[in-house]
Amino acid sequence: MAGLHARFVHRFGRSGPGERAVDYFRGLIAPPTPGDSKQAPSNLGVGPIDSFPQANRLGRSHTYDEEVLAMDESARQEVLERLDVLVGEWMVEADFPGLAAPAARSAFEWTLDGRFLVQRTEIALAEAPDSMAIVAVDPETGAYTQHYFDSRGVVRVYAMTFADGVWRLLREAPDFSPLAFRQRFTGRVSEDGDTIRGTWEMSSDGSASWEKDFELTYRRGR
Description:
The chain is built from 4 helices and 10 strands, in the order H-H-H-H-E-E-E-E-E-E-E-E-E-E. With 222 residues, it is of the alpha+beta class. It has a domain at 72-220: Calycin beta-barrel core domain (Lipocalin, Beta Barrel). Residues 32-57 are annotated as: Disordered. This is DUF1579 domain-containing protein.
């Protein structure tokens, strides 16, 4: 983790990564630690499980190990395999209003025996951060969650869906970063699987209205 931070330290507003974010990241990539049914695994570094509503189910009627096994393995594999179309290297064209941006490079790959999908993105533009995102599958429901980290030290959690060639991300509540505005992304995969055209939208007034933030086009590398 120290090496990862050293790579991007020139972009951070502080000399070291946030301690809570570091612990959270370590918990994502470390093997799970079974523990008391009312306490989150200690390697997450995020405190009692009651502080996370989605995870709070763990303390209701199942132990941590039982929860991990709650979803049928074949069903879990099918949910993961939907994301195979994303695996590989992509050139990403961003259309920022009033700002010319060079193409970014983005790569998706499986990690930890295919249990998580990692996306790493780099762009040679000071106004836009490099980033890493880890997609996980809820072992009980099969829902996707994207855990996002970037070179500004920002950490966010997005609800995610991926079905019928449509990729959606949504963030409507504060998590490891305050919620200054709501965000959502909708991307559509081409029939040949080599292009994804998407739009990020935002809503800053708390209403149901959304406005376009910027557009992204992913083109598969050759």
